[in-house]
């Protein structure tokens, strides 16, 4: 569904944002009738408290929404989006302590809160629309919201309707919409064109594996986004238990996120030469599935001992990263729902990332904080390199011991980027386990807005 703002008109009603510390002044400035009404409702600016203000004929003339204090707001984000479910139909504008709430964050949160996944079940859209606050770049906010909506739609779609072919179709449709070019290598052609590990992981499924290669833009720095597109992950022969398999439709969350980010970049017309690489596979079980202790030879020539077929994401990403690195772009970013270890380390809300470049890492951290897209830097801890080096091959895809699982996965991927290309890896979750403001339960993008905001400082886009 389109996510958009309202136009200001004579019927636009005010939503007064009120910090707890300024509630007394706000109340003093209201009419006697409004003060009595707000006093009766116990309104003191508490975070999330919304009170409709009475108008002529019984229709609300506006509303007051509490922002609490700075410490309250630090415990979450997109607070103003909470008002959406309680406001009546109509167009609204923000007034009062807008700066404390964050004008850009509030505007984006409002649009993101309008998102509904309606492929299989109708859902009533929000009836309250927002006039963008003064000084906010409405086109930028809309582009970001539409990119995030694409990511959510792709992740929320079950594997029955989002296999490798359907992911390819989503990517090619996006490419057509923005005049991009897309090339796809499928099935056994992966072997002849030098992508043996993508083929090995995906060959057991009757839905052929593929590599999606999309390009857009003819000038500016080269940015390559690589997204893990495991459309469903059974674990392969090292099959997952049922509880662990339940959310595996989201194992293409990295691909969904880079496609959402690509949509933002293209919609905004950034001066970039953008490339998107997505290894799209289903990790299935059949007689020709790759096996534990198999040794695979990667596109880069490095050999990999398979010590767990459920650590397949790094295998398909490795071939794609090696391919990306051959072109030596200015920046490579990989995004993947890669390890449970990352969730144990930082939980579902933070997007951990790895980067050896201090300037790039700092820019991403600062951007994430500025645009309410929280990220956390993790270390490429070189002393752990020995953990990914087995006795009979160059690399081990699943080191024994269970420690530092996200770090060893990131170190594995770094082996496929030579060091000439600057590299950032995100180990995301891609799922909102319970509804929060602007984030319904289900698929969610992580890190994309932080990367977008950081791009001017990183590559000059």
TrEMBL record:
Instruction: Give residue ranges for domain Cytosol aminopeptidase.
Output: 308-315
E.C. number = 3.4.11.1
Q: Which GO terms describe its cellular component?
A: cytoplasm
Which family does the record assign?
Belongs to the peptidase M17 family.
Instruction: Mention one GO biological process in which this protein takes part, according to its record.
Output: proteolysis
What is the top EC class of this enzyme, as a single word?
hydrolase
Q: Which InterPro entries match?
A: Leucine_aapep/pepB (IPR011356), Macro_dom-like (IPR043472), Peptidase_M17_C (IPR000819), Peptidase_M17_N_1 (IPR048816)
Query: Known SUPFAM superfamilies for this protein?
Result: Macro domain-like (SSF52949), Zn-dependent exopeptidases (SSF53187)
Native organism is: Albidovulum aquaemixtae
Note whether Hydrolase occurs among the keywords: yes
Q: What is the lineage of its organism?
A: Bacteria, Pseudomonadati, Pseudomonadota, Alphaproteobacteria, Rhodobacterales
At the top level, the lineage of the source is Bacteria
The name under which this protein is listed is: Putative cytosol aminopeptidase
Q: Which GO terms describe its molecular function?
A: manganese ion binding; metalloaminopeptidase activity
Report keywords, A-Z: Aminopeptidase, Hydrolase, Manganese, Protease
């Amino acid at each position: 569904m389109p996510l958009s703002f309202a136009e200001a008109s004579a019927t636009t009603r005010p939503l007064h944002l009120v910090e707890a510390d300024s509630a007394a002044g706000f109340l003093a400035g209201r009419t006697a009738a409004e003060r009595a009404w707000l006093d009766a409702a116990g309104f003191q600016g508490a975070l999330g408290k919304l009170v409709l203000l009475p108008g002529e004929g019984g229709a609300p003339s506006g509303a007051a929404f509490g922002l609490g204090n700075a410490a309250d707001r630090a415990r979450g984000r997109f607070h103003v989006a909470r008002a959406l479910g309680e406001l009546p139909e109509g167009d609204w504008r923000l007034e009062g302590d807008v700066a404390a709430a964050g004008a850009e964050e509030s505007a984006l949160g409002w649009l993101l809160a309008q998102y509904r996944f309606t492929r299989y079940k109708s859902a009533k859209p929000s009836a309250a629309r927002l006039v963008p606050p003064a000084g906010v770049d409405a086109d930028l906010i809309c582009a970001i919201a539409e990119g995030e909506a694409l990511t959510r739609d792709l992740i929320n779609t079950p594997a029955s309707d989002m296999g490798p072919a359907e992911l390819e179709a989503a990517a090619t449709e996006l490419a057509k919409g923005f005049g991009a070019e897309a090339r796809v290598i499928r099935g056994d052609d992966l072997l002849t064109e030098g992508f043996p590990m993508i083929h090995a992981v995906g060959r057991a499924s009757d839905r052929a594996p593929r590599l999606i290669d999309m390009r857009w833009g003819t000038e500016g720095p080269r940015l390559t986004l690589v997204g893990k597109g495991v459309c469903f992950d059974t674990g392969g022969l090292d099959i997952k238990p049922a509880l662990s398999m339940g959310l595996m439709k989201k194992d293409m969350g990295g691909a969904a996120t880079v496609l959402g980010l690509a949509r933002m970049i293209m919609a905004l017309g950034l001066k970039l030469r953008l490339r998107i690489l997505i290894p799209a596979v289903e990790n299935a079980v059949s007689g020709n599935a790759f096996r534990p202790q198999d040794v695979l030879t990667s596109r880069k020539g490095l050999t990999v001992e398979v010590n767990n077929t459920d650590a397949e994401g790094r295998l398909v990403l490795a071939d794609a990263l090696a391919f990306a690195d051959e072109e030596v772009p200015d920046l490579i970013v990989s995004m993947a729902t890669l390890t449970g270890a990352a969730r144990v380390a930082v939980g579902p809300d933070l997007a951990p990332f790895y980067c050896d470049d201090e300037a790039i890492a700092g820019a991403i951290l600062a951007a994430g904080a500025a645009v309410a897209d929280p990220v956390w830097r993790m270390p490429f801890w070189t002393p752990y390199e020995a953990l990914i080096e087995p006795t009979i091959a160059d690399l081990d895809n699943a080191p024994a011991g269970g420690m530092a699982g996200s770090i060893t996965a990131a170190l594995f991927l770094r082996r496929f980027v030579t060091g000439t290309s600057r590299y950032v890896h995100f180990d995301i979750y891609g799922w909102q386990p319970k509804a929060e403001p602007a984030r319904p339960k289900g698929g969610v993008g992580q890190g994309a807005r932080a990367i977008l905001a950081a791009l001017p400082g990183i590559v000059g886009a």
